[in-house]
Amino acid sequence: MRSDVSQEMSFWDHLDVLRKSLIRSAVVVGLIAVVLFFFKDFLFDRIIFAPTRPDFFMYRALGVDFQLDLINIDVAAQFTTHIRITFIAALIIGVPYLIWELWNFVAPALYRHEKRAIKGGFLFAAILFYLGAMIGYSIVLPLMLRFFADYQVSDIVVNTFSLRSYIGLFSSSVLLFGLVFEFPTLIKVLSAMGLVHREDLRQYRRHAVCGVVILAAIITPSGDPFSLFVVSVPLYLLYEFSILICRKREVDEAAAEA
After folding, report:
1. CB contact at 8 A, 216 and 232
2. CB within 8 A of 164, min separation 6: which ones?
């Protein structure tokens, strides 16, 4: 059965609950951002700009000597970058709370067996997000920086990267992979609702391989086999992991008959 509270609530009641949830989420993210604002040196020098220096742990592990110098050509860019990165970092740190708020909003509308099946997926969503963000930060971003730094249409054109362009690449790499790694969570939710089954995912394995390679080629435009392999492997493992956590069709059929 669905929750009695959910059955008694009207559309406007649900809208009011959503509004309060969004307000609480905004307040939490805002408070985290205020705290992070005063840790500018640590946030930028130790984390944001670490991939631009040769002592970055990924470059040392690969034995690569790489350094990227940034310039600022906009009067207000450094201040606006400080504000932007502060809120992005606050959003990333606040992911567990945001997922908890989402679960509290969705849970009353679910059946009891759906709650039991989906609850674990929501709890695991934060771990997957951080894992994807870390891969985007430590692997994908350095690969993309090296490629774009070395790529030239002509020797007379010197690559000089602005602060704004670097921050844009940094944000998209980290957040994109964090969101991509939420794929198993989505499959878990759809499986618990009986919309996706393990047999369906197994049937489309070949299509998944092609999709993963295409996505990896888009994310890592360098085109070298090593970069393509490094990005493709975790993406495909996500698909295989989604198969493992997906329910079998006969389980749902047995439940329906019961």
Report:
1. yes
2. 74, 77, 81
212: which 2 tokens?
């993963």
Handedness of CA 48, 52, 56, 59 (dihedral sign): positive
The yes-or-no verdict on residue 1 having pLDDT over 60 is no
Positive or negative, the Cα torsion across 233, 235, 237, 243? negative
Q: What is the pTM of this model?
A: 0.80
pLDDT digits (tens, 9 = 90+) for 77-95: 999 999 999 999 999 999 9
Segment 176-181 mean pLDDT: 87
Give the tokens for residue 121: 């997926």
A 10 A CB-CB count for 221 gives 12
Closest CA to 53 of 156, 164, 149: 149
- Those residues whose C-beta lies under 8 Å from the C-beta of residue 28, and which sit 6 or more positions away, are 94, 97, 98
Crossing angle (nearest 10°) for helices 141-150 and 225-245: 160
3-class SS at 234? helix
- At 86, list the tokens: 């502060």
Separation between Cα atoms, residue 228 and residue 210, nearest integer Å: 12
36, 85 contact by CB (below 8 A): no
Q: Find, among 115, 123, 122, the residue nearest to 1 by Cα.
A: 115
* Phi (first) and psi of residue 174, to 5 degrees: -70, -50
Show Cβ contacts of residue 86 under 8 Å, excluding neighbours closer than 6 positions.
Answer: 33, 36, 37, 43
